[in-house]
Amino acid sequence: MTESNPLGLAHLLASTDAVGRALFVVLLLMSVASWTVMAVQALARWRGRQRGSAFLTRFWDAPSLAAVGRELAETAPQEAFGRLAQRALEARAHHDTHSAGDAQHLAEAGGLHDFVERAIKQGLDEEALRAEHGLTLLATVGATAPFVGLFGTVWGVYHALIGIGAAGSLGTLDQVAGPVGEALVMTGLGLAVAIPAVMAYNTLVRGNRLQAGRLDGFAHQLMSLVATGAALGRGPAETPSQAPRDAARSAQPA
């Protein structure tokens, strides 16, 4: 029977000093943090897609913006499209309430259209910041974990060679290759931590771009509806993108 190999990660941690153990703990914390962010982001985006699709269906089937406002007042929106619609409707309501007594200030602000447009743009910026939550951590882990692992390998090789020299051995191949190969485990751990983080970062960034495009399209439609005060609702053959354009044309004076 072949003897089991005494070398490995457990032997490396047992034989290394505090620096080597600290580097291993850092890699472990990086891995736990990155996988936590990935799990939270995956769950949040899945819920956001489900809730966003449901809200858009209710939004375009609503009879008026007032009905949408009542729904948003009763139930706080939990996804980006609802929050954007709520911000736009609140901006319009604020303008309608204060336009008589604060005309000079609102005239400088550019009127209803510009007032609502600024509110929508601020909402888009807030959604972009919310979507980027955790991406900095993933980028940092993906960029630094390989170097932390490499540092652990260099530190392990250094101590292995120091130990061989202090023992006064002849430095045969098995005496050198075993500890050096064991130290390379730290480099492998660094890559194992970094690769999932980089892949998740790229996936989330692409998802953010797609979501930003959808929000931007909805913001243009929402701006047209809120500025004109047109009714919602559409026929079976009418798409969401056609609804605000038709409403804007019907609101224009002959």
UniProtKB/TrEMBL annotation:
Protein family (similarity comment): Belongs to the exbB/tolQ family.
Keyword Iron-sulfur among record annotations: no
Membrane-topology annotation of the record: Multi-pass membrane protein
Subunit structure: The accessory proteins ExbB and ExbD seem to form a complex with TonB.
Stated name of the protein: Biopolymer transport protein ExbB
Transmembrane region(s): 22-44, 137-164, 184-204
Pfam families cross-referenced by the UniProt entry: MotA_ExbB
Annotated region (Disordered), positions in chain: 233-254
Residue ranges annotated for the MotA/TolQ/ExbB proton channel domain, each copy included: 107-211
Intracellular or extracellular location(s): Cell inner membrane; Membrane
Main location: membrane
A GO cellular component entry from the record: plasma membrane
UniProt keyword list: Cell inner membrane, Cell membrane, Membrane, Protein transport, Transmembrane, Transmembrane helix, Transport
Matches recorded under PANTHER family: BIOPOLYMER TRANSPORT PROTEIN EXBB, PROTEIN TOLQ
Entry function: Involved in the TonB-dependent energy-dependent transport of various receptor-bound substrates. Protects ExbD from proteolytic degradation and functionally stabilizes TonB.
Alphabetical GO biological process terms: protein import
